[in-house]
Amino acid sequence: MRRSDCLTSNITFYQFLLTHRGEVTPTEKGRLAEWAFHDFGFPKYSTRYNEISEYLELNSPFPEALQVFDELWELYKM
């Protein structure tokens, strides 16, 4: 069984993203997670790359957010 079969098939990207909240040493991933947590418009139930990416393009919380999202998406899909 692949990791993605047990992890990402059961959770949304938002749920995966929240695993990066509250890090002892702040990171850009944690920063994006914290922002998404407080953003009521973030597509919390989405598992679709395009939907989340388009939302971030229009509502980017910091300049590197899209790059961080792409890195996290690769981890999410593993």
Write up what this structure looks like.
This protein has 5 helices and no strands. With 78 residues, the chain is an all-alpha fold. Helix 4 (49-59) runs antiparallel to helix 5. The longest helix has 12 residues, at 65-76. The protein is globular. The termini are close together.
SSE layout:
Elements: H1 3-6, H2 13-17, H3 28-38, H4 49-59, H5 65-76
Helix pairs in contact: 4-5
In short:
By secondary structure, the chain is mostly helical.
Task: Spell out the key features of this protein.
single chain; 78 residues; mainly alpha; DNA polymerase, domain 1; 5 helices; 0% strand; globular; disordered N terminus
Shape: globular
CATH topology term: DNA polymerase, domain 1
Regions with little confidence, pLDDT below 50 for 5+ residues: 1-6
Order of helices and strands: HHHHH
Provide the helix percentage. 55-70%
The biggest beta sheet, please?
A: none
Query: Count of DSSP E strands?
Result: 0
Q: Note the beta-strand portion.
A: under 5%
| Estimated radius of gyration | 12 Å
| Name of the level-1 CATH class | Mainly Alpha
- The CATH homologous superfamily is called YozE SAM-like
The separation of the N and C termini measures 12 Å
Number of domains: 1
The CATH architecture would be: Orthogonal Bundle
**With helices defined by DSSP (H or I, 4 residues minimum), what is the helix count?**
5
Q: What would the average pLDDT be, to the nearest integer? A: 89
